[in-house]
Write a structure and sequence with these properties.
The complex is a heterodimer of chains A (about 475) and B (about 220).
Chain A lengths: L7 H9 L2 H23 L4 H17 L1 H14 L3 E5 L2 H14 L4 E4 L3 H6 L1 H7 L3 E4 L2 H9 L15 H11 L9 H18 L2 E4 L3 E3 L4 E6 L3 H6 L4 E7 L3 E2 L2 H16 L6 E5 L13 E7 L3 H5 L14 H4 L2 H6 L10 H12 L16 H5 L6 H14 L5 H14 L2 H19 L4 E2 L6 H4 L4 E2 L6 H10 L1
Parallel strand pairs in A: 1-10, 2-3, 2-4, 4-7, 5-8, 7-10
Antiparallel strand pairs in A: 5-6, 6-9, 11-12
Chain B lengths: L2 H14 L5 H11 L15 H9 L7 E7 L3 H11 L5 E4 L3 H4 L7 E3 L8 E5 L2 E3 L4 E5 L14 E7 L3 E2 L2 H8 L9 E5 L4 E2 L7 E2 L6 E9 L2
Parallel strand pairs in B: 1-12, 2-3, 2-4, 4-7, 5-8, 7-12
Antiparallel strand pairs in B: 5-6, 6-9, 10-11
Classes of the chains: A alpha/beta (about 475), B alpha/beta (about 220).
């Protein structure tokens, strides 16, 4: 997809002006929050599992080279071909070359954010291979020619009414009904023959298992198995951070991933794949290729962004983010939206092209709270802001304001005096009406809501008065 | 091998420093999951079978269950299910001796599932009480698509093969690379999607209905 993070402000304006988007986001984020809360409450061991998951990921990252080489040897022993790619271009060239060598005309695809990250759709188009997205949401956005707006539910920005119109226009045998069940049935009818006729099936992987060489997919639709079993060739593109030591370690993550992502104890289909078709097998691919992708991940290893490599792509952070809920995923202008995206996009595309993202955050900390691997998202966003300041990427006005503020807070006496004066000025300005409609230099705030009238004195003054009593 | 491989591994070494011996890494990894019981749901008040049935028939998983004493009673249970679901008496059978050798009088059977197969019968290799899941290990007599193409998926579950947790299933399959089947699928209910407005809908691409026939004795 085309990155538009540098136009975040314009994107947000457009998103806020779209009334349908607000309806779509309201219908989904609240539901996902409630489902997650319920299933976590029923899981008494959640705290211990979360702490263990964090430690397992850190252990795996500490020994990443060991585990990747172990995975490579085991996957090869199972009959898969393992490829390595430093950049999206290297990765997609490998995919395109395999498609060409196989003379592929069509490729079915299971939703994979890594695939979006490296640009598989564009690479297939360049190679002249027809791409068939099989995840329902990806199918919707492929027909609508939209980029994904959420990492678990890429069509979260669409209402069912919009999907019904889209299917009526694009499906061979569309449904007359706008009911969601009828829309799902229409997609099933449309896609079933395409699953079975494809030349290549392309998937990502939720996990790589080092000591067996397995790749793991997790879906609710069962589209992963239907995508990669019938075609002659199965290609997996996966980020190197997806590795875990063993199937038993993976079990810890399976329990957390489905609970955090969709509020379920387990997803409907979890499959471990070990190489291509074996002697006597009635179905399965003849070739299996696994492309291990870096794309700035090894750089993140030696940076303060290292904990971000623990991410298992559950989407809980965006489901609980007030900024995401207001503007949706497209405004971020990148493959990964929401809090995790605001950390990843600067790491992958450079801070210069995404400098608004770390600032599109209220630092309320809910993302870290709901993160199943305890990634300190707000700390990292704050550090990215500091990096912007150091790299002179902030506007001169912001920069001078921060310099003045920094000077002031290092002089507590002066700081308390000036805040006391400001409070007094605001109280006088409000004329005891309880709220402030307009205030000099605060147009950004008062343009859409009132400022409250401050209390009697600053916090420190009120605190001092109480202590005296 | 490739330049990319060497460069990636070199970058990792630069970031991480020298690795401890493999035995130390393995010991550290094992220590992290030393007490798996602390990290997964406990259901000490329930036996495997009752937990399995409770979870499999829960609102989220939506399977239905019937019980038979012997494997030879399975065809009758299949017939009863198909009749109740108003499905023609015709099924694709997993090409496994234990299943095909049964007396299927009154039901038309075939082995390869068609693209729009109305109903198929499979034997689960294992089952998980914790989540109400059935487990399929692919093999020449256990094709993968058998579990994904039918609209109604009828699964025979042997009561003694219902294990407590996911880890127990992995332990039975074996931990080494050579122990693994080509596909190990953990299937929990039917194909579903929440991709339109986060509403849960059944029968996305795979089965819309799952019926479990719990069998006391397989032999």
């Amino acid at each position: 997809m085309k990155q538009t993070s540098q136009h975040f402000t314009q994107n947000v304006k457009a998103a806020l002006a779209d009334p349908t988007l607000k309806i779509a986001l309201n219908r989904t984020t609240g539901l996902l929050q409630r489902r997650r809360a319920q299933v976590i409450e029923e899981f008494a061991e959640y705290g211990a599992a979360r702490a263990a998951a964090e430690k397992i990921k850190d252990h795996t990252l500490d020994n990443l080279g060991h585990y990747l080489e172990q995975f490579e040897a085991n996957a090869a022993a199972a009959g898969a071909t393992v490829h390595w790619a430093r950049t999206p271009k290297e990765a997609t060239d490998i995919v395109a070359d395999i498609c060409k060598a196989e003379g592929a005309r069509t490729a079915t695809r299971v939703k994979s954010m890594l695939g979006e990250e490296i640009g598989i759709p564009e690479a297939l188009a360049r190679a002249g291979v027809e791409r068939i997205e099989t995840d329902l949401a990806e199918h919707i956005i492929q027909l609508a020619e939209d980029p994904p707006s959420h990492i678990v539910m890429p069509a979260m920005h669409k209402t069912h009414e919009q999907v019904a119109d889209l299917f009526r226009e694009k499906h061979k045998v569309p449904s007359n009904s706008d009911e969601i069940a009828a829309l799902v049935e229409s997609a099933r009818r449309e896609l079933r023959p395409k699953f079975l006729d494809a030349d290549v099936g392309i998937s990502g992987a939720n996990f790589l298992i080092a000591d067996t060489g397995s790749i793991v997919t997790v879906t609710n639709e069962g589209n992963a198995e239907l995508t990669v079993t019938p075609p002659k060739t199965h290609i997996v593109t996966v980020g190197i951070e997806k590795i875990v030591p063993s199937m038993e370690h993976c079990a810890v993550f399976l329990r957390l991933l489905s609970r955090a992502a969709i509020g379920a104890e387990i997803t409907q289909y979890t499959t471990f794949y070990n190489g291509p078709k074996r002697t006597g097998d009635a179905d399965g691919p003849e070739n299996m290729h696994i492309v291990l992708v870096d794309n700035h991940r090894t750089e993140m290893l030696s940076d303060f962004l290292r904990p971000m490599l623990r991410c298992i792509r559950c989407g809980a952070c965006m489901n609980h983010c007030p900024v995401y809920a207001a503007v949706g995923g497209h405004a971020y202008g990148a493959v990964y939206p929401g809090p995790m995206g605001s950390v990843l996009t600067p790491a992958m595309a450079g801070l210069k092209n995404s400098k608004d993202l770390p600032n599109a955050c209220t630092l309320n900390g809910r993302c870290k709270e709901v993160c199943p691997v305890n990634i300190p998202l707000t700390d990292m966003l704050r550090s990215l802001r500091a990096r912007q300041f150091d790299g002179k990427l902030v506007t001169p006005v912001t920069r001078s304001a921060l310099v003045v503020w920094g000077w002031l807070v290092r002089r507590p006496g002066l700081y308390h005096l000036s805040t006391a004066l400001a409070v007094l000025a605001m109280r006088i300005w409000s004329m005891n009406r309880g709220r402030i409609r307009r205030f000099p230099m605060a147009g950004g705030w008062t343009g859409s809501r009132d400022l409250p009238q401050p209390g009697r004195g600053t916090f420190m003054q009120q605190y001092g008065r109480r202590k005296q009593k | 091998m490739s330049d990319a491989r060497n460069a990636i591994l070199q970058n990792i070494r630069t970031a991480n420093g020298a690795l401890p011996p493999a035995s130390e890494i393995e010991a550290a990894a094992a220590a992290l999951i030393e007490n798996p019981g602390d990290l997964r749901p406990s259901f000490s008040d329930q036996d495997n079978r009752s937990r399995f049935v409770e979870k499999a028939t829960s609102e989220r998983v939506t399977a239905t269950v019937s019980e038979v004493a012997h494997l030879r009673d399975v065809p009758e249970a299949v017939k009863a299910y198909l009749a109740q679901a108003s499905v023609p008496l015709q099924v694709a059978l997993q090409p496994r001796g234990a299943l095909t050798e049964l007396n299927w009088d009154g039901i038309k059977t075939h082995s390869a599932p068609s693209p729009n197969e109305p109903a198929a019968v499979s034997i689960a290799d294992l089952a998980v009480a914790e989540t109400g899941s059935v487990v399929f290990l692919s093999a020449p007599d256990a094709p993968v698509l058998m579990n994904f193409l039918p609209l109604h998926h009828i699964v025979v579950v042997s009561a003694e093969l219902i294990h407590r947790h996911l880890e127990d299933v992995f332990a039975i399959v074996g931990k080494a690379q050579q122990d693994q089947p080509r596909n190990l699928s953990i299937v929990t209910g039917t194909s579903g999607t929440a991709d339109i407005e986060a509403k849960n809908i059944r029968g996305a691409h795979g089965p819309r209905f799952m019926h479990l026939i719990i069998c006391q004795k397989v032999t």
